[in-house]
């Protein structure tokens, strides 16, 4: 059995080999934490974006989209708090010269205590079998209690230090917990310093006074500054949402784990504006909706979990992450935040404009509260890749590498293959391709043995292979081969369209999310 680390390496290599993800400017040895999407990657990414966009703007009559510019007036970032507070605490190890996020080092230490507890529980479970009472064990086992007590104490101390922005205390915690650098193995740490994550550039020529501007570190602010524009021109009534997909930039201190943490990435964010006092109800609503959206893809319900935030951002009164089980542990893919009226109030304050909504039902004006759902396209991409990649041991010793992608997201939906390159089979295959190509992304492949061609499609996650043989010319039927089961059916050419449509139609997923309310999704 491959370790999780080996599996992850294989997935990264697979992404490159099959045209999903390449290192940026690779011929110059790449650029750290920046990646390019290849011919299959871009299709998968676009399908993810479409699934998200439509689940927001088609399923909800009261959600509309925008596409704001990446450059924004610099005061935006003063108002949002990013200039002053968008920092990570960094710490260097003097021996390895490696840089770390102090908060991440401590969180990993907390996770270590949790792992120890879990190990005790698993051991006892094995020993006692069916009669095992886990709750009782957790409450009474001395070793579990000891780990739990250490974990809780550390957690409390860490939360207090983060909330107070106490950098000396963060360093002290690292020293007291005897956390070592994984590279050098030493505890030779520098002090903890704050580091602002925003990239800066200049607009205009220096001669006429260039203006310092930032590459946006999140797409959300483009929505907030357009709140009045959209509300007025779209005659939107509260509650309503604004959705956006776009690039964001963060000068991450530690950029590891492939597309999980990049310096240039893409976000899909939706800000939902509600009446003050109703925000926690909507927070729960979006929390549930977003998890259903993930689970509908069928990668396995047990791969997701919520993680409620200990430390709330300066603007939030509730926050949770949806985490996915990556090969390197459960990791945040999406954040759902109750942002109060912080952003709109700040923009009102800094711009001097009144940013309010007149509620005709209440007959009063107020600054709406906001629930945000924010998901990284690239992290979503990675979770889909990790959740789909598998190696199957076949009879005869062969290994089959399959990307079991949800058909809705697969870059290529079907591949048409003539059994041989002659006797009119290629022409027939092209005819079939032409009948499908306007509705589905379909490939044509006539090179190598049919087995090899199947494997190539398995590796990029194509749900269907359509093989044209000599009989096809007489009976109008083809062999349809299914990716997951490798089963083969003889089907009529005219039935192909419907078979593929049923498998890749996002409507089936939307039904899983909102039940039969497809026609009636007004909030
Ligand atoms: P983390 O704690 O992992 O740094 P975050 O809490 O700062 O993430 P948010 O500011 O809530 O992230 O951003 C929302 C979403 O944007 C995240 O859930 C993630 O999917 C994505 N995201 C954030 N930073 C990055 C990054 N550097 N690379 C790729 N995706 C990112």
Written overview of the protein:
With 523 residues, the chain is an alpha+beta fold. It has three domains: 1-72 and 198-402, BirA Bifunctional Protein, domain 2, CATH 3.30.930; 87-196, Herpes Virus-1; 409-504, Rossmann fold (3-Layer(aba) Sandwich). It is 39% helix and 24% strand. The strands form seven sheets. The chain has a seven-stranded mixed β-sheet. The chain has a five-stranded mixed β-sheet with strand order 20-19-21-22-23, sandwiched between helices. Strands 5-4-6 form a three-stranded antiparallel β-sheet. Strand 7 and strand 8 (211-214) form a beta hairpin. Helix 2 (39-57) packs across helix 13 (377-388), helix 5 (102-128) runs antiparallel to helix 7 and helix 7 (142-163) runs antiparallel to helix 8 (167-176). The site of adenosine-5'-triphosphate has 16 residues, from strand 10, strand 13, strand 16 and helix 13.
Number of strands: 23
Number of domains: 3
The major pleated sheet works out as:
7 strands, mixed
Q: Mind telling me the CATH class of the largest domain?
A: Alpha Beta
Q: Mean pLDDT across all residues, rounded?
A: 94
Radius of gyration, in angstroms, nearest whole number: 26 Å
What descriptors fit this protein?
39% helix; single chain; 18 helices; Rossmann fold; 523 residues; binds adenosine-5'-triphosphate; alpha+beta; 3 domains; BirA Bifunctional Protein, domain 2; 7-stranded mixed beta sheet; globular; Herpes Virus-1; 5-stranded mixed beta sheet
